[in-house]
Amino acid sequence: MERRPIMKYLDEFRDPAASRKLLDEIRRQATRRWTLMEVCGGQTHSLLRHGIASALEEVVELIHGPGCPVCVTPLEAIDFAQKLALRGDVILASFGDMLRVPGSSRSLLDVKSVGGRVKAVYSPLDAVELARRHPQDEIVFFAVGFETTTPATALAVAQAAREGLENFSLLVAHVRVLPAMEALADSPDCRVQAFLAAGHVCAITGYEAYEPFVAKYRLPVAVTGFEPLDLLQGILACVRQLESGEARVENQYARGVRQEGNLPAQDMVREVYEIRDCPWRGFGVIPRGGLRLRDAWRYYDASVRFASARPLDIVEHPDCRSAEVLAGRIQPPECPAFGTNCTPDAPQGAPMVSSEGACAAYYRYRPAPAAS
Ligand code: SF4
């Protein structure tokens, strides 16, 4: 089969003429202004970067959900990771995105600058390789992220067990998307009328996982990707449903998502992890909102292995309103610190740091107007 250059493939999903047609169709269909939430931070960035949010301002209010995994990783887990990195006998391996996220008082990069042993890796299997190469050290991988990353961390711990790598463990802070959507929908001040679900999460879970949610809350869900045409098709699907009073799951990302999802990945995750009630940064505890290692894998649980290093005093920056940003109650520029006391160079909260954070997206694509 002939392979197409990736940019040509991407161009098809950034075609300006097709985008204009979809924008016109959304405006034509909408008889009123609808409120949609995109759950994924990658989609937030794309909506702002390509001007979709402002182009549709009159007919669709896009509010930005809690789908940045780095932003919702609990403060306690970040402080714990920092303490482990400072022990001397531990190398803390993490995705690069986590390194600049502020904990109670500093970030993992700050910890590294004072001698903490922190290593950025591209994959959990890189951390397994570290465990092979450093048998005298404890290698802890900071396992964060949604359903997209859990199969890879499950695979890593299974690989470490197969090889008998006793110096490998996971600090697990994995979270689950659907319980957060339920928490939002249950909230008495929820204004969301339809959701754009993240294609990469659904590639693992399958779009059928959203059907009970739609049946319970009667809120349309469109599974979309990250390119302009993906997002516009998803928005159009939601607007059409809202205008006709329907509520169902629509898969606008058929090139990546199947009804049942990735079954081998789901099996891998089920074997290693079990569901738990879980604190989300900015949200508090979300029932069934996260994962922990099953008892059979407890040996590889860094929170058990290093239980004495668990942090006690955890303090969120008092000026940071990320809880309201993550719940879609305010837009980032409504936070008084936005662009003044809080910038990507001097962030006060995780949403200003992460490549998927809503505050960073607004700072980059919609800076606050200069003071006169
Ligand atoms: S702008 Fe900064 S301080 Fe305000 S909510 Fe966002 S991350 Fe927190």
CATH homologous group name of the domain at 71-176 and 277-308: HypD, alpha/beta domain 2
**Low-confidence runs (pLDDT<50, min 5 residues)?**
none
Here the CATH topology of the domain at 71-176 and 277-308 equals Rossmann fold
The set of bound ligands, ions and cofactors reads:
iron/sulfur cluster
Structural class: alpha/beta
Shape: globular
Count of helical segments?
17
Largest sheet geometry: 5 strands, parallel
Roughly what percent helix?
A: 25-40%
**Strand fraction band?**
15-25%
How is the topology of this model organized?
Elements: H1 6-12, H2 16-29, E1 34-40, H3 41-49, H4 52-55, E2 60-67, H5 69-72, H6 75-85, E3 90-94, H7 108-113, E4 118-120, H8 124-133, E5 138-145, H9 150-162, E6 168-174, H10 177-186, E7 194-198, H11 199-205, H12 211-217, E8 221-224, H13 228-244, E9 249-251, H14 263-272, E10 273-280, E11 284-293, H15 302-305, H16 322-326, H17 358-365
Parallel strand pairs: 1-2, 1-7, 3-4, 3-5, 5-6, 7-8, 8-9
Antiparallel strand pairs: 10-11
The structure holds iron/sulfur cluster (SF4).
Q: How would you describe this protein?
A:
The chain has 372 residues and is of the alpha/beta class. The chain is built from 17 helices and eleven strands. It has helices spanning 6-12, 16-29, 41-49, 52-55, 69-72, 75-85, 108-113, 124-133, 150-162, 177-186, 199-205, 211-217, 228-244, 263-272, 302-305, 322-326, 358-365, and strands at 34-40, 60-67, 90-94, 118-120, 138-145, 168-174, 194-198, 221-224, 249-251, 273-280, 284-293. Helix 3 runs parallel beside helix 17 (358-365) and helix 9 packs across helix 14. The termini are far apart. The chain binds iron/sulfur cluster (SF4). Iron/sulfur cluster (SF4) is lined by residues 319-322, 325, 332, 335, 337-338, 342, 347-349, 351-352, 359. Iron/sulfur cluster is lined by residues 319-322, 325, 332, 335, 337-338, 342, 347-349, 351-352, 359.
